[in-house]
Amino acid sequence: MITPDIWQKSSFSGGGQGDACVEVAHRHPHIAIRDSKVPAHAILTFPAEAFTLFIDGLAKQP
Q: What own/partner pairs with CB < 8 Å and gap ≥ 24 does 3-11 have?
């Protein structure tokens, strides 16, 4: 579960500083996504339902 307004990084974000990934935050009723290398730059938001479908689709990839 994603905590409101707390940015979370994947456990698969890589070594080093762990900044080679995206971060997500729950901003009801949307999910926000940003680049962990430049968190002050653009943030994309998606309806939570669309984001869930996207993640489910990724999980089904070989």
A: 4/28, 7/34, 7/39, 9/36
